[in-house]
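Hey,
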Amino acid sequence: MAKNRVQESFRGIPEEQIKEFVIYGTPEDISRQIEILEQIGIQYLIVDLDPSKEHEALDTFANKVINKMS
């Protein structure tokens, strides 16, 4: 589960602080979070995908997040 991986990677950092710079979840969760960031003025997003699943993650991000937002 993505939440567990994020918590493990950022062990010791409060969840609210992690949410300031990490987006994770289902494609719907991610789309919602990006929309909120756009509303407050974010102009670009840096995407870093899990290297062990990079091709699958990129396909999911492109087809289920970006294409649905356009």
